[in-house]
Amino acid sequence: MSHHDENFRDEAGFIYVIPALAILIGMNCLPATIFWSRYFFG
């Protein structure tokens, strides 16, 4: 477990922006992933 900083302030909102970008990119890649998995595996 890492040390939790009680005085930490996320001024830029990176705690919300980075996971949101990861989800957005993942959802955009999902149709291609389904296509390639069907192409190679069945």
Provide the succession of SSEs. Answer: H
Uncertain ranges:
none
Task: Decide which structural class fits the backbone.
Answer: mainly alpha
Largest sheet: none
Count all strands and give the number. 0
Radius of gyration: 18 Å
Distance between termini?
43 Å
* Helix run count: 1
The geometry reads as elongated
The average pLDDT score comes to 83
Percentage of residues assigned to helices: 55-70%
Report strand %. Answer: under 5%
Question: What would you note in describing this structure?
Answer:
- The chain is built from 1 helix and no strands.
- The chain has 42 residues and is mainly α.
- It has a domain at 17-42.
- It is elongated.
Structural descriptors:
single chain; 42 residues; mainly alpha; 1 helix; 67% helix; elongated
Summed up, what is this model?
This protein has a domain at 17-42. It has 1 helix and no strands. It has one helix at residues 14-41.
Topology:
Elements: H1 14-41
